[in-house]
Amino acid sequence: MMQSSALTTEGSVKGLPEILGVPMQQIPQCAGCNQHILDKFILKVLDRHWHGSCLKCADCQMQLADRCFSRAGSVYCKEDFFK
């Protein structure tokens, strides 16, 4: 009987980083969802890493793509920042 090579010794399923030979400790975690970022692009705002879909305005929750503004550790769209 064949054993699955996708299982680690702890019994959890290996993810893409282990398959590619990258330690999970070297994969940044998203500040928005706390998941490891395996996307092609990683956003870095306020010295924190983000998935593109997780970087959102703290007030209106609009996804921030082009630019963002920060105050007191939170990220805002232009409209909410200048309210």
Automatic annotation (TrEMBL):
One of its GO terms (molecular function) is RNA polymerase II transcription regulatory region sequence-specific DNA binding. The keyword Nucleus applies. The keyword Cell inner membrane does not apply. Keywords: DNA-binding, Homeobox, LIM domain, Metal-binding, Nucleus, Repeat, Zinc. SUPFAM superfamilies: Glucocorticoid receptor-like (DNA-binding domain). GO terms for cellular component: nucleus. Residues 28-83 form the LIM zinc-binding domain. It is found in: Nucleus. Pfam families: LIM. GO terms for biological process: neuron differentiation. This is LIM zinc-binding domain-containing protein. It comes from Podarcis muralis (Wall lizard). The lineage of its organism: Eukaryota, Metazoa, Chordata, Craniata, Vertebrata.
